[in-house]
Predict the structure.
Amino acid sequence: MPPKKSKPPLGDEKAGPSSSKADPSNEVITMAWNLTDMVVQKICEEEPWAVANVLKLLDDGCSIPFISRYRKEMTNGMQAEKIRDVAAAGEELKTVEVKVAAVFKQVTKSGKMTGGLKGALRNARTIEEVEHLYAPYKTGSKTTLAERARKLGLEPAAKVALEEPWKFNLNNFVKPSQKGLASYAEVEKGCQHIIADIISKDKDCLDKIRNLIKLNGATITSTKVKPKKGTEEHPDTAKFANYSAYRISLNSIRPHQVLAINRGENLKILSVKVVLPDNTVNNFKRWCELRWVKSSAPGAVQGLVKTSIEDAYNRLIFPLVVREIRSELTKNAERASIDVFGQNLQRLLLTPPIRGKTVMGVDPGFKHGCKLAVTSPIGNILYTGFMFLQPNNAYAQRNMIAEVLHQHRCETIAIGNGTACRETETYFADLIKNGAFAPLDVMYCIVDESGASIWSVSPDAAKEMPDLDPNLRSAVSIARRLQDPLVELVKIEPKHIGVGMYQHDVSEKCLKDALDGVVEDCVSFVGVDLNVCSATILRRISGLDVGKAKKIIDHRDKNGQFVNREQLLQVKGIGPKTYEQCVGFVRIFTQSSTLASSSHNADNDTKDEASHETLTKTGRKRKAPSSKSKTTKKAKTEVKPNPLDMTCIHPESYHIAEQVLNKTGSEVTEIGHSSIRSKMQRLLQTTSVQELAASLIGSTDTQCGVPTMQLILDGLQQPMDHDIRAEYEKPLFKKSLVSIDDLRRGVTLTGRVKNVVHFGAFVDIGVGESGLLHTSRIHQRLLRRGQPLGLGDKLEVKIINIERLKGQKGQKPKTKIGLDLVAVL
């Protein structure tokens, strides 16, 4: 069988001219706009050449972390967040292209394609616009008024009215015996519908109304919907009291307001309208009259065209514009909400790990008690048990906890922030205050336990800790979240981590894609130790997925530890492209391999329950290679390690790194040591980074770029235990607590940002209820380098308002706390 001919790519204007003559349905439509230019318009602030390069790299299968770190010369140093915006805008426009191609093919096949429709499709920029154009031609859809008139043969008359009005004569079309043509009025009405359709699909008309709206704005209104007679109000009606008689300009509405209004409308609690200013409507209609009404036309024809303009605006153009406005508002609001969610998630994932500490994790609870788990500094389980807060056995509980802490030399307690957190915190704070754990210097930290209970009953948790009660697994997770947040949190679906708002009002797919991208960025930029990491975290590395991560782990278990990065190419399923994308984000530390082996031996002695992953040089336990692999390991001893594999430098730049080492007179064994830092500084005193980059040649016989050179210099000088998370604020440890009853207006407290939303930030001030720091109270002069607040930021805040609310039946009363920003610590 001869091979099938591949279809020409969408947008190739030279493709298939002969086939289009033979069969019109094979014609390929090209868009009137350029993809790069359109993305630049949407994204702004970026150079067109850089945007074009990003789009090409993405098309070539490059991941965002890879582009952000290793292709800075091609992207003008674009950050991962901006690259993700470019990718999203590009995908959205490509979806429009695909939709246009499908609609064009369908309509052409049906024989209904016209020049006007083709032009409108080529200029379409949104899915909504394409749907509007395609609606009359959908199979099974009601024929539009214009289409019915065309079937009656009135299109020539309509075109004459617009192009040669002095020849216009409808009497020739009147047929008394045919419905729709029985009278002059019916014929005139049919012409009106066709003219209105032509006007509504005219690109210049649509551009004009859009530009007028941009210039003069619009207003969004929402009103409360009265329940039908005999029906009760929706139970959530009170939540939308602020929007029951609401009016706001298009330029002033905030993302959270858009999402709230949309939710109220979906629940049929609110009725939402878009109102255009009178001058916008009048100017648009006048413009249309100047464009479509010929001054030399007879009065009757002028009247017909003016009526058609009115009909086109009211029935076709205004509804389309409203859909576009609402759609754009929703998209922007969803994007803003997802961005905030992503920023919060990033700050949470990049919380610095607490190294070298044995931790007791406490999952608070009343009825079933508090679940306890003690984990070693490398995450192995040393103890699990339960504790009950009832006063009648407080003495026995205190002795039991003290015994466990002393036995494992544990001075750090992580308390989950769920049910009974406040009571549990009070209990431990009292014990610390009374010296119950002396001579241990015990401190505690409140840890966000969002998603821990969901993960504890998941198949992954059962596989990792098969012999452990699901309730105790959550205590283990809480302890490990303090020891290494990123390692533990990557196990949980990002949407369950609880660091955003309105996640149920945005597209689930968009939210998942964005948050998965944030996780990929964080894990990739922190890096993983290839010889001790698990498949759970490895699958989050740039270029890898669940299947490829599993194959890497299986290869490691079967053949022993990796000696150098190049051995990744021996793994089945890891080809050159995957290798290129992931290799810069994995590390190979000989020291961690030794620690992993020691951890395994210690585990056999202490009968630890489960292993735990690591990112860089923590030496967490992993499954030991089977005895069958010993011969294989012996045979591989000839493979030489490369010290550059311990750095963030990509193998494609090793040639340049070696040239830099030669220039400084350094050995590869000095990488990461103080000696090489001294030599580098001496070199840079006489040679700038730009000059150094220009003097060196890469493996492809091209000059090294400045961003790549800076990355190489940093990679050679950074200590082997360098962790980008060290730049962020560490968890807040406490020995005592402040009671919510002690709070008064004017009191100044220290707290941590727990969540960031569009209207401010929620701050944990250690009283069981987070206070709201409204945007109006976030003074820009107090922010560091003008940077916005992020999760984990340590603040000094002043209480400006306290409102104690009555709780609903069966629930504890809540307190609303208003805060003012005093300082960013």
Residues 1-22, 592-614, 616-637 have pLDDT under 50 and may be disordered.
